[in-house]
From TrEMBL:
This is Oxidoreductase. It comes from the Bacteria. InterPro entries: KR_dom, NAD(P)-bd_dom_sf, Sc_DH/Rdtase_CS, SDR_fam. Belongs to the short-chain dehydrogenases/reductases (SDR) family. Residues 6-179 form the Ketoreductase domain. The keyword Zinc does not apply. SMART domains: PKS_KR. Signal peptide: none annotated. Keywords: Oxidoreductase. One of its GO terms (molecular function) is oxidoreductase activity.
Amino acid sequence: MSIANSVALVTGASRGLGGALVRALREAGARRVYAAARSPAAIAGGDGVVTPCRLDVTDAASVAAAARFAHDVTLVFNNAGSMARGALLADRDDAARQDMETNFFGALNVLRAFSGVIVRNGGGAFVNILSVSALANSPDAGGYSASKAAAHSMTQAARAELAPRGIAVFGAYPGPLDTEMATGLIARKAAPDMVARAILAGVASGQDDIWPDDMARQVAAVWSRSPKLLERQFANLAGRAAA
């Protein structure tokens, strides 16, 4: 899918990878980029390309309002995310629930609301921002990993359902990023702007599954050979970090 001249919407666009995606889309020649966030006042617009948009993905009414506002969209980046740190079984129920509400149900809300918009505009694509933690659970963020695994499965379902309607569905699986969400995480972290550009390149080349950084590609290689080995490696990494 061509990025140039597209009309895109990015959820969770006020910072981190979302902000980087907005910058990358503008640089790649998108005609309009709706930068969506709960507090869009923090997003700089007014350049004729970036348009701030209020959106809480966990609120169906907010998502419906955003779909009416961004009525010309052809490309949606499902990027808004939540990550509670800590062991899943020892975690507060509300923290794990918030991860699922944002990372799974929030993304599903966006898919449902914007699929009709994209069809009316002649077709396009969704890009679900997932994580390498969708492939094997990271025990130091068990609820987050579970929510991303659910979103990974949802991406496959949406891809099958939307293909006959002229909508592609991509999954992007970055490793740890150098963002506020990953503060305190002991791991090699990729630069968000580099990852954003790699995601756009994957979309432009039609890759269903996008591995946008070195760690993502290493994880994908292990996962393709042995999902059980990847599970053990993630568990060992979490154990060393906790020691």
